[in-house]
Amino acid sequence: MSLQRRQLLQTLSYALGASVILPRNESAMAAPSPPQPASHATPAKATAKPVATVSGTEKVTGIGGLFFRAHDPDALGRWYLQHLGIALTPTSNDAPVWQQEAGPTVFSPFPEKTGYFGDPQKLWMVNFRVRNLDKMIAQLRTAGIEVKLDPQTYPNGRFAHLHDPEGNPIELWQPA
């Protein structure tokens, strides 16, 4: 398993609990971390124990939006709608807004010098859950979009990577 994937699994297991990410008999795989080279820092606080929230303390309930700069916002918005089915921000009260399906969401800062996103100038990567990774990849490739499938199946699912027209990294995830 690659070092970066192992770090992601470790972060997922801390964020969501190992029993959610991995079957009970495999949860021990994500807990120990091999010695890491100095050039590969782990995500911030990845080795710290999760802090319990105070009972009655208000917390966020999910991600309400993802906002980022684009050279051509209209064209990029159409690309996301056409190829990934993400509805654009409504411009009227009767227009639909994109509705996500319930499921796990990982919130994970990565080291500043991570190579996982590709271009070091890109500061973020979005990960979209999909029901059928093979069908999504075929759909994107039919549209002429380059998609790289990670050939390995991990305890928490399968992954593929692509870039939008402005070079922003996208990871597709089919949970296990």
TrEMBL record:
Skewed-composition ranges (Low complexity): 38-52
VOC domain mapped to chain residues: 62-175
Tree of life domain: Bacteria
Positions of the UniProt region annotated as Disordered: 28-52
Protein name: VOC domain-containing protein
Protein species of origin: Dyella flagellata
Lineage: Bacteria, Pseudomonadati, Pseudomonadota, Gammaproteobacteria, Lysobacterales
